[in-house]
Protein backbone atom coordinates (compact mmCIF):
# COMPACT_ATOMS: atom_id res chain seq x y z
CA UNK A 1 0.00 0.00 0.00
CA UNK A 2 1.35 3.41 -0.98
CA UNK A 3 0.46 6.57 0.94
CA UNK A 4 1.35 10.24 0.59
CA UNK A 5 3.35 12.18 3.16
CA UNK A 6 4.10 15.87 3.16
CA UNK A 7 7.28 17.24 4.67
CA UNK A 8 7.51 20.55 6.52
CA UNK A 9 9.88 22.31 8.86
CA UNK A 10 9.62 24.90 11.59
CA UNK A 11 13.01 26.62 11.99
CA UNK A 12 14.80 23.51 10.74
CA UNK A 13 12.87 21.15 13.04
CA UNK A 14 11.42 18.91 10.31
CA UNK A 15 8.38 16.65 10.28
CA UNK A 16 6.50 14.26 8.04
CA UNK A 17 2.71 14.69 8.03
CA UNK A 18 0.30 11.83 7.32
CA UNK A 19 -3.37 12.67 6.69
CA UNK A 20 -5.35 9.99 8.53
CA UNK A 21 -8.07 10.18 5.88
CA UNK A 22 -5.79 7.81 3.93
CA UNK A 23 -6.49 5.08 6.50
CA UNK A 24 -5.03 3.82 9.75
CA UNK A 25 -1.86 1.73 10.05
CA UNK A 26 -1.24 -0.95 12.70
CA UNK A 27 2.44 -0.16 13.16
CA UNK A 28 2.91 3.60 13.60
CA UNK A 29 6.03 3.39 15.82
CA UNK A 30 7.83 1.21 13.27
CA UNK A 31 6.72 3.40 10.36
CA UNK A 32 7.95 6.51 12.19
CA UNK A 33 11.35 4.91 12.70
CA UNK A 34 11.57 3.80 9.06
CA UNK A 35 10.31 6.99 7.44
CA UNK A 36 12.25 9.35 9.73
CA UNK A 37 15.58 7.58 9.28
CA UNK A 38 17.80 10.06 7.42
CA UNK A 39 20.06 7.60 5.62
CA UNK A 40 17.58 4.91 4.54
CA UNK A 41 14.21 6.67 4.84
CA UNK A 42 12.90 10.13 4.02
CA UNK A 43 14.38 11.77 7.09
CA UNK A 44 12.69 13.86 9.77
CA UNK A 45 12.65 14.59 13.49
CA UNK A 46 9.16 13.11 13.79
CA UNK A 47 5.98 11.81 12.17
CA UNK A 48 2.75 13.77 12.65
CA UNK A 49 -0.65 12.12 12.22
CA UNK A 50 -3.23 14.68 11.08
CA UNK A 51 -6.96 14.33 11.53
CA UNK A 52 -9.19 16.96 9.89
CA UNK A 53 -12.63 17.43 11.45
CA UNK A 54 -15.38 19.99 11.06
CA UNK A 55 -15.25 23.69 11.99
CA UNK A 56 -11.44 23.91 11.67
CA UNK A 57 -10.90 21.25 14.33
CA UNK A 58 -7.79 19.11 13.93
CA UNK A 59 -6.23 16.20 15.80
CA UNK A 60 -2.50 15.61 16.21
CA UNK A 61 -0.47 12.59 17.26
CA UNK A 62 3.32 12.85 17.14
CA UNK A 63 5.77 9.98 16.94
CA UNK A 64 9.42 10.85 17.49
CA UNK A 65 12.08 9.56 15.13
CA UNK A 66 12.75 6.68 17.54
CA UNK A 67 9.07 5.62 17.48
CA UNK A 68 8.17 7.00 20.90
CA UNK A 69 5.19 9.31 21.39
CA UNK A 70 5.67 13.01 22.15
CA UNK A 71 2.75 14.71 23.83
CA UNK A 72 3.38 18.08 22.20
CA UNK A 73 5.65 19.96 19.81
CA UNK A 74 5.54 23.69 19.16
CA UNK A 75 7.24 23.42 15.77
CA UNK A 76 5.36 20.23 14.97
CA UNK A 77 1.94 21.75 15.59
CA UNK A 78 2.73 24.60 13.18
CA UNK A 79 3.75 22.06 10.52
CA UNK A 80 0.56 20.08 11.10
CA UNK A 81 -1.57 23.24 10.86
CA UNK A 82 0.21 24.20 7.64
CA UNK A 83 -0.63 20.82 6.10
CA UNK A 84 -4.29 21.18 7.11
CA UNK A 85 -4.41 24.83 6.01
CA UNK A 86 -3.19 23.81 2.55
CA UNK A 87 -5.63 20.91 2.29
CA UNK A 88 -8.55 23.11 3.36
CA UNK A 89 -7.40 26.09 1.25
CA UNK A 90 -7.65 28.30 4.31
CA UNK A 91 -7.09 32.03 4.45
CA UNK A 92 -4.93 34.23 6.68
CA UNK A 93 -6.69 34.72 10.00
CA UNK A 94 -8.09 31.20 10.15
CA UNK A 95 -8.19 29.82 13.69
CA UNK A 96 -7.67 26.09 14.20
CA UNK A 97 -8.38 24.08 17.33
CA UNK A 98 -5.88 21.24 17.60
CA UNK A 99 -6.52 18.31 19.93
CA UNK A 100 -3.17 16.92 21.07
CA UNK A 101 -2.02 14.40 23.66
CA UNK A 102 -1.20 17.42 25.86
CA UNK A 103 -4.69 18.87 25.50
CA UNK A 104 -6.42 21.36 23.23
CA UNK A 105 -4.35 24.10 21.58
CA UNK A 106 -5.47 27.08 19.47
CA UNK A 107 -3.44 28.05 16.41
CA UNK A 108 -3.96 31.18 14.33
CA UNK A 109 -2.58 31.55 10.80
CA UNK A 110 -1.27 35.11 10.92
CA UNK A 111 -0.06 35.54 7.32
CA UNK A 112 -0.88 34.73 3.73
CA UNK A 113 1.31 32.26 1.85
CA UNK A 114 4.75 33.59 0.94
CA UNK A 115 5.94 30.96 -1.52
CA UNK A 116 5.90 27.85 0.73
CA UNK A 117 5.86 29.67 4.08
CA UNK A 118 3.12 30.82 6.44
CA UNK A 119 3.38 32.23 9.96
CA UNK A 120 1.39 30.77 12.82
CA UNK A 121 0.76 31.81 16.43
CA UNK A 122 0.00 28.97 18.86
CA UNK A 123 -1.44 29.17 22.36
CA UNK A 124 0.85 26.64 24.05
CA UNK A 125 -0.94 26.55 27.41
CA UNK A 126 0.64 27.11 30.80
CA UNK A 127 4.26 26.54 31.79
CA UNK A 128 4.13 24.45 34.96
CA UNK A 129 6.90 23.55 37.40
CA UNK A 130 7.61 19.83 37.79
CA UNK A 131 9.81 17.66 40.00
CA UNK A 132 13.48 17.15 39.25
CA UNK A 133 13.68 14.32 36.68
CA UNK A 134 15.20 10.95 37.46
CA UNK A 135 18.98 10.70 37.03
CA UNK A 136 19.41 14.48 36.94
CA UNK A 137 22.33 14.16 39.36
CA UNK A 138 24.32 12.47 36.57
CA UNK A 139 24.76 15.88 34.90
CA UNK A 140 26.68 17.11 37.97
CA UNK A 141 25.45 20.68 37.54
CA UNK A 142 27.12 23.31 39.67
CA UNK A 143 24.57 24.02 42.44
CA UNK A 144 25.03 27.74 41.77
CA UNK A 145 23.98 27.32 38.13
CA UNK A 146 20.31 28.25 37.39
CA UNK A 147 18.14 25.24 36.54
CA UNK A 148 14.40 25.05 35.93
CA UNK A 149 12.29 21.90 35.43
CA UNK A 150 8.95 22.58 33.73
CA UNK A 151 6.23 21.05 31.58
CA UNK A 152 4.29 22.31 28.59
CA UNK A 153 2.54 18.98 28.28
CA UNK A 154 5.99 17.45 27.81
CA UNK A 155 8.99 17.59 30.20
CA UNK A 156 11.77 20.18 29.93
CA UNK A 157 14.88 20.99 31.92
CA UNK A 158 16.44 24.40 31.25
CA UNK A 159 20.01 25.21 32.32
CA UNK A 160 21.61 28.63 32.21
CA UNK A 161 25.19 28.73 30.89
CA UNK A 162 27.71 31.39 29.96
CA UNK A 163 28.03 30.17 26.36
CA UNK A 164 25.91 27.49 24.66
CA UNK A 165 28.45 26.71 21.94
CA UNK A 166 31.17 24.84 23.90
CA UNK A 167 28.73 22.63 25.86
CA UNK A 168 28.78 18.91 24.95
CA UNK A 169 25.02 18.70 24.68
CA UNK A 170 25.05 15.25 23.06
CA UNK A 171 26.74 13.82 26.14
CA UNK A 172 24.56 15.68 28.63
CA UNK A 173 21.36 14.82 26.78
CA UNK A 174 22.28 11.15 26.70
CA UNK A 175 22.32 11.15 30.52
CA UNK A 176 18.66 12.26 30.71
CA UNK A 177 17.12 10.96 27.46
CA UNK A 178 13.62 11.01 29.01
CA UNK A 179 13.48 14.84 29.10
CA UNK A 180 14.01 17.69 26.65
CA UNK A 181 17.20 19.45 27.72
CA UNK A 182 17.72 23.12 26.86
CA UNK A 183 20.80 25.24 27.56
CA UNK A 184 20.49 29.01 27.28
CA UNK A 185 22.68 32.09 27.42
CA UNK A 186 21.49 35.71 27.52
CA UNK A 187 21.34 37.91 24.43
CA UNK A 188 22.81 39.06 22.27
CA UNK A 189 19.90 41.56 22.30
CA UNK A 190 18.34 42.71 25.56
CA UNK A 191 15.04 41.01 24.67
CA UNK A 192 16.65 37.75 23.52
CA UNK A 193 18.30 34.52 24.56
CA UNK A 194 20.28 31.94 22.62
CA UNK A 195 19.31 28.28 23.03
CA UNK A 196 20.47 24.81 22.04
CA UNK A 197 18.39 21.70 22.63
CA UNK A 198 18.65 17.92 22.96
CA UNK A 199 15.14 16.55 22.39
CA UNK A 200 13.68 13.43 23.92
CA UNK A 201 13.34 10.80 21.21
CA UNK A 202 15.18 12.83 18.56
CA UNK A 203 18.53 14.00 19.98
CA UNK A 204 20.06 17.30 18.87
CA UNK A 205 17.61 19.32 16.76
CA UNK A 206 17.90 22.72 15.15
CA UNK A 207 14.95 24.12 17.08
CA UNK A 208 12.29 23.15 19.62
CA UNK A 209 9.06 25.10 20.06
CA UNK A 210 8.04 23.87 23.50
CA UNK A 211 11.69 24.20 24.50
CA UNK A 212 11.69 27.83 23.36
CA UNK A 213 8.67 28.47 25.60
CA UNK A 214 10.34 26.75 28.57
CA UNK A 215 13.54 28.71 27.93
CA UNK A 216 11.70 32.05 27.66
CA UNK A 217 9.87 31.35 30.93
CA UNK A 218 13.19 30.59 32.65
CA UNK A 219 14.89 33.65 31.17
CA UNK A 220 12.17 35.93 32.52
CA UNK A 221 12.27 34.25 35.94
CA UNK A 222 16.08 34.59 36.13
CA UNK A 223 16.11 38.19 34.93
CA UNK A 224 18.03 37.41 31.73
CA UNK A 225 15.30 39.34 29.88
CA UNK A 226 13.28 42.17 31.44
CA UNK A 227 9.59 41.44 32.02
CA UNK A 228 8.73 44.68 30.25
CA UNK A 229 9.53 43.22 26.80
CA UNK A 230 6.66 42.54 24.39
CA UNK A 231 8.06 39.10 23.61
CA UNK A 232 11.22 37.07 24.12
CA UNK A 233 13.23 36.31 20.99
CA UNK A 234 14.70 32.81 21.19
CA UNK A 235 17.67 32.33 18.86
CA UNK A 236 18.18 28.70 17.83
CA UNK A 237 20.38 26.99 15.27
CA UNK A 238 17.44 26.81 12.86
CA UNK A 239 16.26 30.40 13.31
CA UNK A 240 14.37 32.65 15.68
CA UNK A 241 11.04 32.16 17.44
CA UNK A 242 9.08 34.73 19.42
CA UNK A 243 7.53 33.75 22.73
CA UNK A 244 5.05 35.67 24.87
CA UNK A 245 4.79 34.64 28.53
CA UNK A 246 1.96 36.20 30.54
CA UNK A 247 2.16 36.99 34.25
CA UNK A 248 0.34 33.70 34.97
CA UNK A 249 2.88 31.85 32.74
CA UNK A 250 0.67 31.16 29.74
CA UNK A 251 2.85 30.81 26.64
CA UNK A 252 2.26 31.85 23.04
CA UNK A 253 4.70 30.70 20.36
CA UNK A 254 5.01 32.61 17.09
CA UNK A 255 7.00 31.37 14.13
CA UNK A 256 7.02 30.08 10.55
CA UNK A 257 6.08 26.78 8.98
CA UNK A 258 7.66 25.89 5.65
CA UNK A 259 6.37 23.29 3.17
CA UNK A 260 9.23 21.23 1.70
CA UNK A 261 7.47 18.72 -0.54
CA UNK A 262 5.38 15.58 -0.78
CA UNK A 263 6.34 11.97 -1.37
CA UNK A 264 4.63 8.65 -2.00
CA UNK A 265 5.91 5.87 0.26
CA UNK A 266 5.14 2.23 0.93
CA UNK A 267 3.36 1.62 4.23
Can you give me a brief rundown of this structure?
With 267 residues, the protein is an alpha+beta fold. It is 17% helix and 43% strand.
Q: How many structural domains? A: 2
Low-confidence stretches: none
The largest β sheet comes out as: 8 strands, mixed, barrel
Number of strands: 17
Which value, in Å, is the CA radius of gyration?
Answer: 18 Å
Mean pLDDT: 96
Oligomer: single chain
Strand content: 35-45%
| Helix content percent band | 10-25%
Backbone structural class: alpha+beta
Determine the number of helices (DSSP H or I, runs of at least 4 residues): 4
Report what the structure shows.
One of its GO terms (cellular component) is cytosol. This protein is an alpha+beta fold and 267 residues long. It has two domains: 135 residues, Roll (Diaminopimelate Epimerase, Chain A, domain 1), CATH 3.10.310; 127 residues, Diaminopimelate Epimerase, Chain A, domain 1 (Roll), CATH 3.10.310. It contains four helices and 17 strands. It has an eight-stranded mixed β-barrel. Strand 12 and strand 13 form a beta hairpin. The chain is globular and about 55 Å long.
Write the layout of secondary structure elements.
Blueprint: E1 2-10, E2 13-19, H1 28-36, E3 46-52, E4 57-64, E5 69-70, H2 74-88, E6 95-100, E7 103-109, E8 117-126, E9 128-129, E10 147-151, E11 155-160, H3 169-175, E12 180-186, E13 192-199, E14 203-205, H4 209-222, E15 232-236, E16 239-245, E17 250-266
Parallel strand pairs: 2-3, 4-6, 11-12, 13-15
Antiparallel strand pairs: 1-2, 1-17, 3-4, 4-5, 6-7, 7-8, 8-17, 9-10, 10-11, 12-13, 13-14, 15-16, 16-17
Amino acid sequence: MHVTLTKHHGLGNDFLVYDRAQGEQPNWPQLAQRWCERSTGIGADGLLLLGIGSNSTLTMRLYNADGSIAEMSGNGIRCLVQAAHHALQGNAGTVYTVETDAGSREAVVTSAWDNDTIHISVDMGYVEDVETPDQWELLQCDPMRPVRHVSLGNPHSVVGVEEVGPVDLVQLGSLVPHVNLEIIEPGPETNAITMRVHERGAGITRACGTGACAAADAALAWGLVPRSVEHVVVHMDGGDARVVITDDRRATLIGPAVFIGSVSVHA
